[in-house]
Amino acid sequence: VHGAGRKLFVYEDGRTATEVLDFLRAQEPGTPLAVVGQVTKKFAGGASLAMELALPRAAGPNDRILHQLQGHWYAAEDANAQFSILGAERQNVFQGAVSDIEFLSVQDRCADFAGKGPYLHVFEPDTGEDQCFAIDSIDTQQMTLIFLPRGNFLQYKRLK
User: How far apart are CA 157 and CA 136, in angstroms?
Assistant: First the structure.
């Protein structure tokens, strides 16, 4: 499960009911959920949870944008720079070399940036690096992100 750009782990260790685990397993990646639980351990990039309850929730505007991001993309300037988004995880590939998985969230603010959103927040759990992108535009075939704080435009096309 992901929340606010971090990965939340729920283990089959007796602290989370079997019904809750079965419900979580049945969900598609990126499904908006409301969860209740206790953090049992925090670590870089996430936390472990003893989950008491998990329920579907109505998708908000940021959930709908995350849904639009799903799939395979490539940089308009260099087709060798590609990435795939599944749920709230992004896997980058450059010239066939696969990099670590990053965690994504679409938010109304990102770090010191607020207003003129929405923003794509990217967290690299191995390095602890956070990145912010303003989402300039997105449709079924292309998207334009603005890397912050530099402000350069990055254009991507959906891989067919």
Answer: 14
Contact indicator for 85, 104 with CB cutoff of 8 Å: yes
Distance of CA 67 to the CA centre of its chain: 10
Which phi and psi (to 5°) does residue 150 adopt? Answer: -60, -35
3-state secondary structure of 69: helix
DSSP-assigned states of every residue in 92-113: EEETTEEEEEEEEEEEEEETTE
Per this entry, what is the length of the chain?
A: 160
Cα gap 116→9, rounded to integer Å = 32
CB 119 within 8 A of CB 135: yes
Report helix, strand or coil for 148. Answer: strand
Residue type, 61: P
The model's pLDDT over 2-39, given as tens digits with 9 standing for 90+, comes to 987 889 999 999 999 999 999 999 999 889 999 999 99
Which one-letter DSSP state was computed for residue 150? T
> What pTM was computed for the model?
0.88
pLDDT tens readout for residues 71-90: 999 999 999 999 999 999 99
